[in-house]
Amino acid sequence: MPDQSLPQAPPSAAQDAPPQAPADRGLSRRALLGTAGATGLVLGAAGGAVGYAAAPASATPLSSVGSDQVMFHGKHQPGILQGLQAHGHLVAFDLTPGSGRTGAAALLRRWSETARRLMAGEAAAHGDTDVARDAGPSSLTVTFGFGHSFFARTGLEKRRPVALDPLPAFSSDHLDARRSNGDLWVQIGANDALVAFHALRALQKDAGGVARVRWQMNGFNRSPGATAHPMTARNLMGQVDGTRNPKPSDADFDRRIFVPASGSADPAWMANGSYVVVRRIRMLLDDWEQLSRAAQEQVIGRRKADGAPLTGGTETTGMDLEKTDANGDLVIPLNAHARITRPDQNGGAAMLRRPFSYHDGFDADGTPDAGLLFVCWQADPLRGFVTVQRKLDRGDALSRFVRHEASGLFAVPGGAAEGEYVGQALLEG
What we know:
single chain, peroxidase activity, 9 strands, metal-binding, peroxidase, nine-stranded antiparallel sheet
């Protein structure tokens, strides 16, 4: 958990267009709010005897959380530069035998249209489930990527980026192959749980017989407005986690996070795209919580209360890596997580992190199965994630308290222009 954490062609075949749903399914979710008050009154009158409460006489407008919308079309795919969302789903698919390049292109065309509609607060074009019928967009984002195996399945091996070569093994790895990698990867984020699930279900239905779910993980973050003022998120260890995330205002941000449109060793279809590393990192919370607060702060190198470095100041104050205490010992230990992951300690390596926390219940002995769905973005995973993780492998104090249980690396192309779908340059180029 490095310290930089936290920013159309028509269907070509009948299988590309699922059967038409009833006409009312195409209504905008947002438009339905206009009739919410009247509908509620009818329910109240008819169902009052069995416990239904009448709705207010006039419709309640969308809150700021519900009305927030992210555009699907753009230079970069959504879900990279936006802030952390309260709810998320990560899911990988494998293409079914015989789907090939044609099936994959049809699927990405369907997925892109569904994502565009849902992100605009509209219903899915076919068979909408009504789960999010009365909700606004709620900052929904949907992001698509391609795994290493996708290119062999579609006959596109010659167009596979070198940067997509499998990640090396690390000492903290205890990887479950069934929950790692995959042909296709989808990231869904929203500030409403029903909106996020609605998107997950719609995309899974769109996959039809072309792709099957390989693995799926659910995550969460603090909800917008839960704190008195905006602040950096905390992880399940209670630590402020995201202080040194690179910012779009940084002069070298684009160079570190996105593949340039020209002058790159990457294939042209990756222009304005990025590479995402996804890791399911289990936190050994029972062990961690046995440490005193002071010991936890020594492991991280920052104060737990406000994220400030142990050498003083505020969360954004630079670390004084040479400062010693009265005994001559370094205030920030040599193996402190925050020291090891600093870009200036790793040849400038930086990643844009947009993680989710997760909790999948408890083991038989009561141990929580909880931790971080680590999601990090970079223009070159070898110079970004791999560089930092190798450094962590050599002596990070936090390594005793985490275990990497699943992993994936995916090529995420740039955003789709109006009238195009994600990955079109690859699949039709």
